[in-house]
Amino acid sequence: MKIVIIGSGNVAYHFAKAFLQNGIAVAQLFGRNTTELEKISQELNIPYSTKKIEIADLYFICVNDASIQEISTIIPTENCLVAHTSGAISINNLIGNYRKAVVYPLQTFSKTKKLVYSEIPFFIDTEEDKDRETLVNLLQKISRKIGFAKDITRKHIHLTAVFACNFTNHLFARAKEIADKHAIPFDYFLPLIDETVQKIHHLEPKLAQTGPAIRNDNSVLEEHRKLLKDSEQLLIYDTLNQSIKKMYEL
Amino acid sequence: MKIVIIGSGNVAYHFAKAFLQNGIAVAQLFGRNTTELEKISQELNIPYSTKKIEIADLYFICVNDASIQEISTIIPTENCLVAHTSGAISINNLIGNYRKAVVYPLQTFSKTKKLVYSEIPFFIDTEEDKDRETLVNLLQKISRKIGFAKDITRKHIHLTAVFACNFTNHLFARAKEIADKHAIPFDYFLPLIDETVQKIHHLEPKLAQTGPAIRNDNSVLEEHRKLLKDSEQLLIYDTLNQSIKKMYEL
Q1: Under CATH, what is the fold of the domain A3-149?
Q2: Which tens digits make up the pLDDT trace of A67-82?
Q3: Which CATH superfamily does the domain covering A155-247 fall into?
Q4: DSSP 3-state assignment of B51?
């Protein structure tokens, strides 16, 4: 099976690398960014082009959500399977007379960070059943966590990930802002953050909640509000404390 | 030096255990909850009482913030050092003619979870310099991360921890709520959560941000808003996305 990966960003890089590490050949990388394609091509020893996309059996579209639809129209054959890799975009955004699929890896990618691919869940959606089998057989070589999710479920998976990952990171950024302002090294908080996450590996997050809001300790809450001089920090503080109180009916 | 620990909760338990593991004797556990004191006493082989608190050189008050002031009045001697262990409470909430201190461990504790005490930062405050030395010498046997923080700094450390730890856990709880509603196993998200936290060990959180808000992808944001039927989830979603956009001036 001849595979082409479209894109040169973090997702394209990690798809190519995961295939390579598991003995699956990638015939071509195709994209617009010569600099990035050159880098990936050299590291992984895969040919690339910015001009002519090869005829293949399977294409992975690993580009920004906003570009998927446009890129999906350039596939040079109808006798193929085309999968985009986005959590938020419908399978119907693929425009062409080929067979359609989605392969959504539930992970946050950056090029500089090594990942254990076998632990990354991949959620598959296909129009045709036989393609589902093809993708399962292929992806099982990479990961031991293969799932299936139609558009609406995949969108909820993506939404859940926004809460659990994107928003969490933003709280770390806001926390560091507070620490920086008072010359407190942010490194001090890393063991606490690690432990917070370790806990939910064996305890339901709802049962692991600590802090002044769940203790309904309004004197601490009021004192914290006085310490917060930034309106965005204060809005987050109030919103999340209110949400905690509502969740536990305090 | 004779040490007494007051309280029978998670903090009292881990203080006692950390001392024990590092060859520091604890003379007595004192508190009101016989069941809990009995348990800790048996596990760690430390005598306890609910009636008569022993004369000692050093007392650690490990009780709820709201009870610290009241408990601080029962210390049976003036020739001693008394430390409370709260991040949010002033050293001045200790009421008595003894020497006063705070020893604030920056960690989230639960009795069932083993901790690596050597990695936990302890922030010390004392009225008198000689007590500072005493506490540093003692706590250095437990942890390699000893810091100093007066009331106002300690309160900011606690506030930062609320953002980085309490709020983060609440986001996990809200994320699980969404996943549960759509029959998506929350376990799928653990590698993503782990990676989110791993990243900020070597990358500033502000530089690690991903997701639709920082891409200013308003079509995904709007679609997510339509998926969210719960008003608390929606309020969190809007507040945090707005905060992300403001931080990056989008």
Answers
A1: Rossmann fold (3.40.50)
A2: 999 999 999 999 999 9
A3: ProC-like, C-terminal domain (1.10.1040.20)
A4: coil
> CB B107 to CB A174 under 8 A?
no
User: Residue A203 and residue A164: Cα distance in Å, rounded?
Assistant: 15
Q: Does the CB of A212 have a partner CB in chain B at under 8 Å?
A: yes
Q: How far is B178 from chain A (nearest CA, A)?
A: 6
Domain range list for chain B: 3-149, 155-247
Give mean pLDDT, residues A117-129.
Answer: 96
DSSP letter at B97 equals S
Provide the pLDDT for residue B110.
Answer: 81
* Closest chain B C-alpha to A41 CA, distance in angstroms: 25
Cα–Cα distance measured from residue A9 to residue B136, given in angstroms and rounded to the nearest whole number: 49
pTM of the model: 0.93
Residue A108 confidence (pLDDT)? 87
User: Is the alpha carbon torsion for B10, B11, B17, B20 positive or negative?
Assistant: negative
Q: What does the pLDDT read at residue A225?
A: 97
